[in-house]
From TrEMBL:
Reaction catalyzed: Release of an N-terminal amino acid, Xaa-|-Yaa- from a peptide, amide or arylamide. Xaa is preferably Ala, but may be most amino acids including Pro (slow action). When a terminal hydrophobic residue is followed by a prolyl residue, the two may be released as an intact Xaa-Pro dipeptide
Annotated family: Belongs to the peptidase M1 family.
PANTHER family according to UniProt: AMINOPEPTIDASE N, PROTEASE M1 ZINC METALLOPROTEASE
SUPFAM superfamilies: Leukotriene A4 hydrolase N-terminal domain (SSF63737), Metalloproteases ('zincins'), catalytic domain (SSF55486)
InterPro entries on file: Aminopeptidase_N-like_N (IPR045357), Aminopeptidase_N-like_N_sf (IPR042097), Peptidase_M1 (IPR001930), Peptidase_M1_aminopeptidases (IPR050344), Peptidase_M1_dom (IPR014782), Peptidase_M4/M1_CTD_sf (IPR027268)
Cofactor list: Zn(2+)
Name of the protein in question: Aminopeptidase N
Keywords: Aminopeptidase, Hydrolase, Metal-binding, Metalloprotease, Protease, Signal, Zinc
Pfam families assigned to the protein according to its UniProt record, in alphabetical order: Peptidase_M1, Peptidase_M1_N
Signal peptide bounds: 1-36
GO molecular function list: alanyl aminopeptidase activity; metallopeptidase activity; zinc ion binding
Alphabetical list of CDD domains matching this protein: M1_APN_like
Organism: Saccharomonospora glauca K62
Enzyme class per UniProt: hydrolase
Amino acid sequence: MSNELPFVNMRIRTRVCSGGVAACLVTVLTATTASAAPVRGAPGVGDPYYPGDGNGGYDVTHYDIRLTYQPETDRLSGTTTILATSTAELSSFNLDFALDVESVRVNNRPARVERDPADPTEVVVVPEEVVGKGEPMTVVVRYADTPSEVAVDGVTAWKLTETGALAVDEPHIAEWWFPSSDHPTDKATYDVSVEVPDDVVALSNGVLAGTSKQRVGWTRWNWRSVEPQATYLTFLAVGDYDVRYSTTPSGLPSVTAYETTLGDSRAAAEASIERTPEVVEFLEGLFGPYPFEAQGGVVSTGLDFALENQTRPVYDAGFFSRGSNLSVVVHENAHQWFGDSVSLGRWSDIWLNEGFASYAEFLWSEHVGEGTADELARYLYESIPADDEFWQVLPGDPGADNQFHSAVYDRGALAVHALRTTVGDEVFFELLRTWLDERRGGHGTVEEFIALAEKLSGKQLDEVFDTWLFTKGKPKVGPSGAEVRAAVAEPESYREIAFTHEQLAKRQ
């Protein structure tokens, strides 16, 4: 959010005196500068679901997070340095953070810290000197707390495990371990450095820049992410993990890790996660080049979901309780394009993340000969009764309470398939690659995606999107996949398309 300074009002005044026109006609240029007082940066970016998320008045470019964590006591302490640029003349600004703050410095000067009584995650920072518009800001925050004891709106997103802790969740997790502008539209690069006892490891995003020791019994793990990354996709996993380091066929570093408490699920987890480079190679053929500097995955306990943390998804062990599960690996790695590289512009745009990641599972199924998208779609469509609440949730704007409802995933995937059958494969895959290429490292909205789809297809697509994304109720049952493909040339025929997908037992 930008707060523009008022314009400078220029007036010309003419004064006549005795002594001749040439000598005495004086044109006086006066300037009245309507210089407003510095502003307080807004406490949020105005997201319709989470108005307090993110902060106005500045844009973050980099986070340097340097921490020490003791699993035995769940004590987290350290410093986060934020590099940002002001977008207004600031007398104060906000950070999104729930832990106890010891001190804040802005451009090397101590700053005053206040808590917003209406929202405990809003930390108001009042610098000693006003920050000019367009100026660089270096904000250093020192803090210490016990994250598992901190609740926001009755929720504690920090998760303790048998061997350590996880900072993994959506839509919010940063508040429990680093101060930030917590919205997907304000991406940054990251250095994450965490010191932990020698008997556990600290895992995060990107490339392992190295480990070091400064005192007996402790090891510091240093991770670097060089591509723009959203706050909720930045994670920390501390615990007893077996870690593997390798290089993918494309030359990228890969880090996979398995918590030592996985039990009988360990082999199935490895049989799934170690195929990540194969999955990524398949997805590159659909979506274009992989957008990041590293790959991998972490399997842990204590989540009950999987999350597409940038470069390194984290999976709950339960996904592998019945054997290998490539579907969830496909889903979370498809998010590296849809959700991570191109993030949602508002949390109401969640379909742009989950609908396409779920549809990638359809495409993988076709790839490995386990059913076409039409076959899978018909099965799901027919398995959900018309009176099921599933059909009352709108994937295009599900509401904050239903962001992760199964309809967002599965009806969302049906919407993607409806689009594919309406515009044809050539336009469909061109659309996906164009969307991802043009917005790489940025974000987008559902409306912007629809506009691009109409531009590339040359078709008016309101009806197909309205039916599958924004209209309650079960769309009419349609013909077989073969009949659908024969009807693609008729734009109105999308209402007769039936789709299907086998749901994951647990996912996010």
